[in-house]
Amino acid sequence: MYIGEQIIEVITNTLLELDIKSARVVASDNGALYCVIKARVQTAAYRAAGSVDYKW
Asked: Where found in the cell (predicted)?
């Protein structure tokens, strides 16, 4: 599995954990760790939804 595929998997799994089944995601790989990518996806999802009911 290539790095780009792993990043897509991290993003997809993170969205599914948040019960998001449909989303438009644009990602730019600048070498972030997977835990950082996950945190950024979570933050973006919560901000887009206007939610403060965090599922950490």
From this structure: Cytoplasm
